[in-house]
Design a protein that fits this description.
Rossmann fold, five-stranded parallel beta sheet, binds cytidine-5'-diphosphate
């Protein structure tokens, strides 16, 4: 069984995916990390971010086993990831790796932007997790403060909007809900409430 979780930045996809994976004993892949790992490898090697052929070669070398959100969390890496994510050759390479991962075990949760529409169009459960841009920016802001960092809300809000435009506006695999996705607007939901809503949908699919 494959569970596809898509949605914009800071909607709560990762938090929900990890809870689902833990509850049902499923493997989990945060596909955003594959774009981030490719971007970091390019940055570390001093390679250009605007050469599709070079970026594809690096994307094909990404090891799914070593992906770590802490190592890949830097803002500059996220920015670079969102730039190379518009390149069709990079997407093809990473989608291949994501599909291979999804077939490795009987239960899988994948989260990203195009899981229900492109990576796993036959997923048994598709959730499109979203929240208003204000709420998502506030979540990112709180996250930084809680780690003892400093943040500027207006800057984060502008960043969320820019990320949305790039994700929804690209020609290849733009962010949008799959036709058969369940929409989950978490703007006014706690993490637990969002999980309970998802659980009802997953349990119904498991009974089929
Ligand atoms: O993976 P994605 O970027 O969609 O979001 P996330 O990293 O799971 O969540 C972003 C932040 O929002 C985290 O700090 C979560 O704890 C928080 N969050 C929340 O406050 N309420 C929710 N319903 C979901 C997430
Ligand atoms: O930084 P943020 O939490 O918004 O995103 P992420 O999930 O860490 O992914 C980094 C970048 O990769 C995003 O800006 C997306 O544009 C891109 N991405 C994608 O195009 N397709 C996916 N399935 C996952 C991520």
């Amino acid at each position: 069984m494959i569970i596809a979780i898509d949605g914009p930045a800071a909607a709560g996809k990762g938090t929900l995916s990890r809870q689902i994976a833990e509850t049902y004993g499923f493997q989990h892949l945060d596909t955003g990390l594959t774009y981030r790992a490719t971007a970091k490898a390019l940055l570390d090697a001093g390679l250009p971010l605007d050469n599709e052929e070079v970026a594809e070669k690096i994307a094909r070398e990404v090891e799914l086993a070593g992906l770590d959100r802490d190592i890949l969390s830097a803002h500059a890496i996220g920015e670079a990831a969102s730039k190379i994510a518009v390149m069709p050759a990079v997407r093809r390479a990473l989608v291949e790796a994501q599909r291979t991962f999804s077939q490795r075990k009987p239960g899988t949760v994948l989260d990203g932007r195009d899981i229900g529409t492109v990576v796993c169009p036959d997923a048994a459960v598709k959730l499109y997790v979203t929240a208003s841009p204000e709420v998502r920016a506030k979540r990112r802001y709180d996250e930084i403060l809680s780690r003892g960092g400093e943040a500027d809300f207006a800057e984060i809000f502008a960043d969320v909007q820019k990320r949305d435009e790039r994700d929804m506006g690209r020609a290849d695999s733009p962010l949008r809900p799959a036709e058969d996705a369940h929409l989950l607007d978490t703007s006014e939901m706690s993490i637990e409430a969002a999980f309970q809503a998802a659980k009802v949908i997953i349990d119904a699919a498991l009974k089929k």
